[in-house]
Amino acid sequence: MTSELAVDDLVVRFPLRSAMVARLLGRTSEVLTAVDGLSFTVPPGESVAVVGESGCGKSTLARCLVGLQAPTAGRIRLGGQVLPRRRTRGDRRRIQMVFQDPSSSLNPTMTVATMLAELLHVHDLARGDQVRARVAELLELVQLPGRIAAAYPRDLSGGQRQRIGIARALALEPEVLVADEAVAALDASVQASVLNLFAELRARLGLTLIFISHDLAAVRHVADRVMVMYLGAVVEDRPAESLFTDPQHPYTQALLDAAPRLDRRLGDEPSLPGEPPSPVALPSGCRFHPRCIHAIDHCRETEPVLTGPSATDRTACHLAWRDTHERR
Amino acid sequence: MTSTPSPPPPSAAALPAAVLPDATLPQPARRRPHMPRKFWIGAVIVGGYAVAALLAPVLAPADPMAQDVANRLADPGTNHLLGTDELGRDVFSRLVHGIRVDLMVGFLGAFFPLVVGTLLGALAGYLGGWADVVIMRITDLVQGFPVYILIIALVFALGPGIRTILIAFTAIAWVIYARIIRDAILRVRSLDYVQAARAAGIPHHRILLRHVIPNTIHQSVIYFTSDVLFAILAVAAFSFLGLGVPPPTPEWGSMIAEGQPYLRDQWWLAAAPGVAIVGIGLGLSLLGDGVDDRWRR
To answer: What ipTM was assigned to the predicted interfaces of this complex?
Structure first.
């Protein structure tokens, strides 16, 4: 029932100034490149984490996947079928999203039951008495007691709201579930239980899971595979185990170093200086070279290709797959 | 509903954290909180006025237009509850009939702008682009004018009367509603729950009706209650100036104007309609405040 998700050469650009205004002012219109030529495929049932700093385009990717953002170029396929720019209700149903902030992602004027029932009604997934049964089933699926059905979002805690957000996405029986920073707004203890819920749902429902996060550590236990994004492009895309134990891209290494650890000594500076450059003026050559501690002249001139031993084990770095010591 | 929060047993053992409910569960879900007391006090006051307006012919002891010059400026007493005015008309009867005129002009004078403004504001907010630019520039234009000057100009152009007053109010007061609704729609449209509804394939009209408008309309409704009061005060003010409801019709503003020369000896001629205006104002304010409190929760 689940199909392969494929993204081909996805590009999303936002004009910062309308072309007409730019002409009136006699300036060229500036364009922000949020997603710059992403290509990847996700086999059915796989769990992929997309990781990167804020502004790297990971949320834009999520919005493209669920059809809230029309791509500038490129396409998204699900099970071989290209999803059109204007998706039908049926298309939308196949890819659903869990939002970051559970306090703003639930309509405050609707009860949990009304909210879920509306979706079942609009998609004609249940009728009459079935609606109630299905709502109870969905609540059970996200491990909430049935009486929560009558509650308004303001009656619920953050973790409960996020579980409702998950139930809402699951109500449409999607093939792909996109979680955009779905645990970032939660307390640490609640984060763990919601992450566990994702892992369990995936096993139980055979969902393809796209888990978007800024926190490498958080995705470690949910992801089969990790894609690291930097300035709109994937710089490393590898099985989670190898990425965590043997990161190839200097940016991934820096992200792993940046995670707080108890054994870090004072004076160990994180190896990631500065902020990402502006996505309005992308650097020449490798997009990471201005912040890279290993950068050589070649990096400033030529953009590295995302490549590696296999289609799911790729790195975009001229220096990757060389002896780690040589670089350090 | 049977509530058995049975967590799936086998896998749950491996995932102990998942079995723990996040924080404490809420009390058995409660219904929406009740309206605050001030809402009900306001509702009773406004309701009282409305009932009095409906029952005016029954409540009023005399014909509000009937003159009895021999009996002019009579003191309040058994024959005339609030005395008679300069033409010998029963003040209480005029006061009660005046509710009809003032309440109607007040409500219609706020209702028409609400409808026009909500419609144009929703168009501007939802369509965006040139529709937004044109509609919003018109609101700037209208708001740039001093309100009363504009109404006076319209009254002179169209001649005094209830119809003119309603047209004038609608032409001016819609801009506030347009702004309120437009801003609310812009704000709500980008909120996650509207995005989620879009991502879930819920049709546009349903998103507007069930997700956007229920979360935006309350600001207009709250504003409406204070706008009714503004309209009543404005009608009274214009009638006081002789620009509003033409004379024989009983209306509070013109009653105050007529009573003004006798303020020293027959103060109740002006005071009674004044108190009536204060009363409806209080009722409407409490009503609006109550709705506001209720929605803020």
So the answer is: 0.84
